[in-house]
Amino acid sequence: MTALSPIEALFVSTEVYPFAKTGGLADVAAFLPKALRQRGCDVRIMMPKFRSVQERFSGELRFVASFELALAGRIVQGAVETLEYGGNIVYFIDCPHYFDRERIYDYEDELERFVFFCKAALTALPKIGFQPSLIHCNDWLTGFIPFFLKNEFRQLPYYAGMKTLFTIHAMLYQGVFHQRAATEVLGLDWSYFTERGLDFYGQLNCMKIGILSADKVSTVSPSYATEISKLSPLQMEPLAPALRTRRKDLHGILNGIDMEENNPATDKRLFTQYDASDLSGKAVNKRELQQLLGLPVRPDVPIIALISRLEITKGLYLLEKSYHELLKDDVQLIVVGDGIPYYDYLFNHIMERFPNNMRYRTYEETLAYRAYAGADLFLMPSYTEACGISQLIGMRYGTVPIVRETGGLVDTVQPYNAETGEGTGITFKYANQWVMLDAIRRGVELYHDRDAWDGVVARCMTQQLGWDQSAGEYRKLYEKIVGEKRTVEA
């Protein structure tokens, strides 16, 4: 058997579980590098040292090196610290001025914070004793890494052979800033961007910079890659021209979940553990979840869970338009999440109107996993979804998904067929409240057909949802990128 050639890669993300997390990116950034390391790749992670890192892991961090760089007309000092966690080597860019703050995101100097992070990641590399052949960048917050590598660092021998992969996880967040802020931070005349096609309707778009500057572009499911490569500006996606430009270099690789981290047979966050061979423990979790949230304890009523960031792309407007019909049925609805304040108001209002069959709580990890385990049906009505992690976790915990047919939801949930008994969930095509309501009612009908239901639950729990296949595809893509001559200029 021929040995695989070594691949050295730096995986750069602003979120990595358990150090900082607001969504699925943090899980991908923790568990994909771990899966690649298990396949013989030397993949290491780099992220900002946010306040949460200092508060939870200060005793484990080891100082590596200090550095300085020029930004926004001044010299900024920084440092690199490291630790090993969960099978990964993680490097933290330390700069209290930018990262020692109450929140991870949403500050007035957001562009400056993450341009610093991009430049610091490249500046720090020679000091940490690791020379990757590939830098894997994730979402707009790392979009300037390919740009800086091409335009500033590549002339130095250390960086000469490095390549970049830019992965799109969430098109909703693109990092759009006024040109004045961009020129002040970067110290470049605006004509530099307009002459190279990097301007964005008179503004700066960090995701566009990443898409056009990287050697290859990827996203987190094959169906989503197809969807975004066919978009047009008329579909309210102004990045469409950039995506069409890179269509031949755009790859869709499905996300997975870590099967050890997400295992109902060993998960200590649950009320009790269970597996596909004995679901009595899932019934216990359901009862305890109802008691915890103050819902009527009824084993016969199906619990529908929605665990999500509360934002418009998640299709919550469908629930807003149909909850008054849905909650007339004999069901219980549990919503766990946080995000746009309007949805906090909405779900509190629904809970007040239907106190016997609806509960809403802000996101907390233990509660979320107890809901995954205690619920019967998992609702994910996303308007758009690059891949989705939640439906995978739901299936792993034996909670049958109800999803809209978009992006990675198409790739991960097989529609239930009543005639053949095959399938792992309920799907619906159109983003319409009545279509969604019909899908939910089909799920409830399936729940009451116990023989058919048990078969679907068993199939969900035995699906191959881990990173094995996807890590193999990423390794092949890494090898392809590293082996190719650079042909894309930006």
Q: How would you describe what is shown here?
A:
- The protein folds into 2 domains: 8-256 and 468-483, 3-Layer(aba) Sandwich (Rossmann fold), CATH 3.40.50.2000; 280-461, Glycogen Phosphorylase B (Rossmann fold, 3-Layer(aba) Sandwich), CATH 3.40.50.
- 39% of the residues lie in helices and 19% in strands.
- It contains 19 helices and 18 strands.
- A 9-stranded mixed beta sheet has the order 3-4-5-2-1-6-7-11-12. Strands 15-14-13-16-17-18 form a 6-stranded parallel beta sheet, with helices on both faces. Strands 8-10-9 form a 3-stranded antiparallel beta sheet.
- Strand 3 (62-71) and strand 4 form a beta hairpin.
- The two termini are 40 Å apart.
Q: Short description, anyone?
A:
Helix content is 39%, strand content 19%.
Integer-rounded radius of gyration: 23 Å
Distance between the termini: 40 Å
Shape: globular
The major pleated sheet works out as: 9 strands, mixed
- Helix and strand content put the structural class at alpha/beta
By DSSP (H or I, 4+ residues per run), the number of helices equals 19
The CATH class of the largest domain is Alpha Beta
Which band does the percent of strand residues land in?
A: 15-25%
Query: What is the CATH homology-level superfamily of the largest domain?
Result: Glycogen Phosphorylase B
CATH architecture annotation of the largest domain = 3-Layer(aba) Sandwich
- Unreliable spans are 486-490
Protein name: Glycogen synthase
Catalytic activity: [(1->4)-alpha-D-glucosyl](n) + ADP-alpha-D-glucose = [(1->4)-alpha-D-glucosyl](n+1) + ADP + H(+)
GO molecular function, one term: alpha-1,4-glucan glucosyltransferase (ADP-glucose donor) activity
Family: Belongs to the glycosyltransferase 1 family. Bacterial/plant glycogen synthase subfamily.
